[in-house]
């Protein structure tokens, strides 16, 4: 929330009041990336796979004043079962209300399993692709492989992918999913450049130097290497 000085007052940030999982460090790093993309004029659409109540979608919505903001969620209950159409519609409205507390940007919500969503569906909504994609839907390896393939197909030039729960020991399918996707697609040019706040940030190999350098300008604790690439750890 603006305090009249143009400075974000973290204590009053409406995103913090939305139910979900988002560390301050991951929020700050994602917002810095979104600003960087706006300045570099490479911002297109923003996409989230797995929306829950809209916490990260709100960050994407207020960080994108150029393109379309799209969220895909199957609207499952706590046990992973489909909600009834009535309850799913209520969940969608709940997400819209939550996002609206942080941003007036319209969001396009798709109620579906991500495996049933095609690149053509997404490019039909944002024809120039997506410059920020957050993968946080199903956490089994197969779900993650499918979601990375979808993200890879619609990532625009200069875009980034954030993967939630990478290296989280409680969610082994996420790490397994990325490594097995790479093993099955040895020519993939999706590579990591930063990790922190329970997320791994990736981009195309051609953009790696740019994003790796940018990451070192943000608060961080260490540098390392992963998948043959420089990685900043925060
Ligand atoms: C961890 S939550 C997402 C949290 C959200 N990104 C946030 O910022 O709070 C996972 C979400 O993914 C959805 N989901 C799980 N498996 C899915 C699938 N295969 N396709 C689409 N959505 C799925 C669930 O309904 C749930 O809302």
Search tags:
nine-stranded mixed beta sheet; Rossmann fold; alpha/beta; 234 residues; globular
Which molecules other than protein and nucleic acid are bound? S-adenosylmethionine
Mind telling me the CATH superfamily name?
Vaccinia Virus protein VP39
* H-E order: HEHEHEHEHEHEEHEE
What is the CATH topology classification name?
Rossmann fold
Extended strand count: 9
Uncertain runs = 1-7
So, CATH architecture?
3-Layer(aba) Sandwich
Percentage of residues assigned to helices: 25-40%
Strand content: 15-25%
Strand order of the largest sheet: 3-2-1-4-5-7-6-9-8
**Main beta sheet, described?**
9 strands, mixed
Number of helical elements: 7
Global structural class: alpha/beta
Mean pLDDT across all amino acids: 95
How many domains? The number is 1
Question: What order do the helices and strands come in, and which of them pair?
Answer:
Elements: H1 24-39, E1 45-49, H2 55-62, E2 69-73, H3 85-100, E3 107-111, H4 119-125, E4 130-135, H5 141-154, E5 155-164, H6 172-184, E6 190-196, E7 199-204, H7 208-216, E8 222-226, E9 229-233
Parallel strand pairs: 1-2, 1-4, 2-3, 4-5, 6-9
Antiparallel strand pairs: 5-7, 6-7, 8-9
Helix pairs in contact: 2-3, 5-6
The structure holds S-adenosylmethionine.
Brief digest:
By secondary structure, the protein is of the alpha/beta class.
Describe the structure.
The model is unreliable at 1-7 (pLDDT under 50). It contains seven helices and nine strands, in the order αβαβαβαβαβαββαββ. It is globular. It has one domain (21-233): Vaccinia Virus protein VP39 (Rossmann fold, 3-Layer(aba) Sandwich). It is of the alpha/beta class. The chain has helices at 24-39, 55-62, 85-100, 119-125, 141-154, 172-184, 208-216, and strands at 45-49, 69-73, 107-111, 130-135, 155-164, 190-196, 199-204, 222-226, 229-233. It has a nine-stranded mixed beta sheet, with helices on both faces. The two termini are 25 Å apart. Helix 2 packs across helix 3. Bound molecules: S-adenosylmethionine. S-adenosylmethionine binds at residues 20-22, 48, 50-53, 55-56, 72-76, 113-114, 136-138, 143.
């Amino acid at each position: 929330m603006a305090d009249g000085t143009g400075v974000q007052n973290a204590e009053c940030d409406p995103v913090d009041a939305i139910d979900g999982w988002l560390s301050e460090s991951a929020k700050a790093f994602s917002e810095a990336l979104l600003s960087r993309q706006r300045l570099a004029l490479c911002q297109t659409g923003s996409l989230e796979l797995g929306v829950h109540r809209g916490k990260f979608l709100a960050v994407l919505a207020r960080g994108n004043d150029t393109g379309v903001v799209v969220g895909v969620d199957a609207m499952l209950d706590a046990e992973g079962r489909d909600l009834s159409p009535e309850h799913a519609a209520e969940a969608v409205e709940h997400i819209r209300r939550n996002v609206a507390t942080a941003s007036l940007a319209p969001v396009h919500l798709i109620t579906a399993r991500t495996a049933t969503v095609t690149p053509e569906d997404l490019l039909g909504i944002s024809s120039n692709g997506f410059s920020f994609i957050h993968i946080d839907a199903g956490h089994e390896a197969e779900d993650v492989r499918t979601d990375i393939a979808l993200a890879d197909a619609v990532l625009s030039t200069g875009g980034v992918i954030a993967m939630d729960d990478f290296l989280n020991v409680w969610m082994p399918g996420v790490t397994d999913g990325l490594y097995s996707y790479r093993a099955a697609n040895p020519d993939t040019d999706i590579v990591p450049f930063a990790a922190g706040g329970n997320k791994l940030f990736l981009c195309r190999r051609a953009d790696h130097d740019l994003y790796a350098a940018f990451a070192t300008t943000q608060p961080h604790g260490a540098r390392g290497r992963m998948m043959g690439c420089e990685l900043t750890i925060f």
